[in-house]
Amino acid sequence: MSTAPDTERDLLAAEYALGVLAGADRAEAERLIGADPAFAAAVAEWQERLSPLIEEVDPVAPDA
User: Fold this and answer.
1) What is the DSSP letter of 57?
2) How many other CB atoms sit within 10 Å of the CB of residue 30?
3) E strands, the chain, in order
4) How far apart are CA 36 and CA 32, in angstroms?
5) CA–CA separation, 13 vs 35, rounded Å?
6) Contact call for residues 33 and 39 (beta carbons, < 8 A)
C-alpha cells in the first residue's frame, strides 16, 4: 500500500518540525520550505502544534 503524496509531505513536515530529519531528507525539507509556501506553512503548523510539548519535557544535559 503506497502513501499518498500529500500524506508523505505532511509526514516530512512533521518530522522536520520535530527535528528528527538528517542528511538528504533534511536537505529536501529545507529546499521545500524555501520553494513551496504550502510546505513551509505545513512546517509552521506542525511547529505550532508541537510547541506545547516542550513545556512538558524536563531539560537533560548531554553526556560529556
Assistant:
1) S
2) 13
3) none
4) 5
5) 14
6) yes
pLDDT of residue 64: 86
| Segments of the chain with pLDDT less than 70 | 1-5
Burial of 1 (0-12, 13-18, 19+ CB in 10 A): exposed
CA 39 – CA 45 distance, rounded (Å): 10
Q: Quote the pLDDT of residue 19.
A: 93
* Sign of the torsion formed by the C-alpha atoms of 24, 40, 11 and 45: positive
Asked if residues 21 and 29 have their Cβ atoms less than 8 Å apart, the reply is yes
* Contact (CB, 8 A) for 21 and 33: no
Question: Grid coordinates standing for 7?
Answer: 500524506
